[in-house]
Amino acid sequence: MPKNSWRRSLAEKVSFSISLSIVGIIVTLICYSWISGNSNPPILSISQFNVRQVNSQYYVPFTVINNGGETAASVEIVAKLTLSPQIVETGRQQLDFLSRKEERSGEFIFSHDPNQGELAIRVASYRLP
Amino acid sequence: MGKNQRNRNTRRVSGDTWREEIEEIISGASGGFLFGIPLLYTMEVWFIGSYVRPPILVAILAITFLIILSINRIEGFRPQESETLPGAIAETIETMAIGIVCAVIMLVILKRIDFQTSLTEGLGKVVFEGVPFSLGVAFSRSLLTENGAAEDNGREQKPRSDNRPGYLRDTMADLSATLIGALFIAFSIAPTDEITVLAASASSWWLLIIMTVSLLISYGIVFASTITNYEQRRQQQGLFQTPQSETIISYLISLITGMLMLWFFQKISFADSWYIWLRYSIILGLPASIGGAAGRLAV
């Protein structure tokens, strides 16, 4: 049965209006992120939070955020805990992707108390996708 | 005809129109799930969505729009033909909206989009996953109607009898079809790393949500879809043949099928805890139950 678009039922008109809104919102958001976006390289910053102790292990939460314009791939985060020249613990994590303004959280785990030594957490490297 | 009578008729017609509209949308969404689910369980698509730039997303949306528009000129998810170009354009917008909504729901359910996801990354994932879902919506009638028609013809030639062996035969046919459909999908997804990755981000209560969504989609595909002989299915009686019980039992079959496939491909072993078995099976149970529902359409 042929359907004339100008003689649609109320139900069809409502679903068309909702559909148009959904597609319109998606296109608007893409255009907004296009216009407001920048093409600067990734700027990765990391912040760490209070240490928590569970079963004689020390958990150090961290959050990494990309404040740059481009997406960073294979973001590598390294942590180094130095208690003495003899006692050094390291940790390493990798994130697949970190888009613009995206943040991801995780934790490093040490067997010694980070408060008793010197802890350094930094973003070591990334590559462009 | 009295005024009350006229009002009743108006209400009934209006109600039918709304019911038909909802059924058509559910039919379209069912096709979208059938076509889109394999790409949803593909890690590379999530990654591509993470870094693709907005101009490319706009281009992809535009190309998808043109492809679906050309499909809608001859096919489309609505049974009525879109004869005019404005009609076809309207149906294309509806098709893409259904596909996008289905993709968003699944990406949120599988935790590929959360509050930490940036706008650009979220849009990239939605657009890339929305394309196969939208194509599935556009192809929904061709994907499923043929089986439905074949089924109708088969049933006409072989009328249902009320004796118990007939009930048992129908039950066994449905269960076998679910098993084959679930096996078909689970076999291709079980050996991949996506199950492990998806399971890692799902908490216990989130698994319950995934189970609920699996049941709803399975129910939607087989029983609420206008493209199958659902009226006949709704009237079936006997062992496991009420819509709700058949959906639940079919889901259990899909779950067990998924579990066996995971074990077959060494993704889980007897050394693993029961929670790992359950977790992985529920994650794989989602596509498997969709495959099972598609299988039941072919009975």
Unreliable stretches of chain B, pLDDT < 50, 5 or more residues? 1-12, 147-162
Number of DSSP strand runs of chain B: 1
Distance, first to last CA of chain A: 50 Å
Q: Which chains share the greatest interface?
A: A-B, 39 and 43 residues
How many domains is the backbone of chain A divided into? Answer: 2
* Multimer state: heterodimer
From the helix content, strand content and strand pairing of chain A, which structural class follows?
Answer: alpha+beta
Count of alpha/pi helices of chain A: 1
Number of domains of chain B: 2
H and E order of chain B: HHHEHHHHHHHHH
CATH class of the largest domain in chain A: Mainly Beta
- CATH overall fold name of the largest domain in chain A: Immunoglobulin-like
Principal-axis shape of chain B: globular
Order of helices and strands of chain A: EHEEEEEEE
- Amount of beta strand of chain A: over 45%
- Overall CATH architecture of the largest domain in chain A: Sandwich
Number of helices of chain B: 12
Largest sheet data of chain A = 4 strands, antiparallel
Gyration radius of chain A, rounded: 24 Å
- The shape of chain A, in one word, is elongated
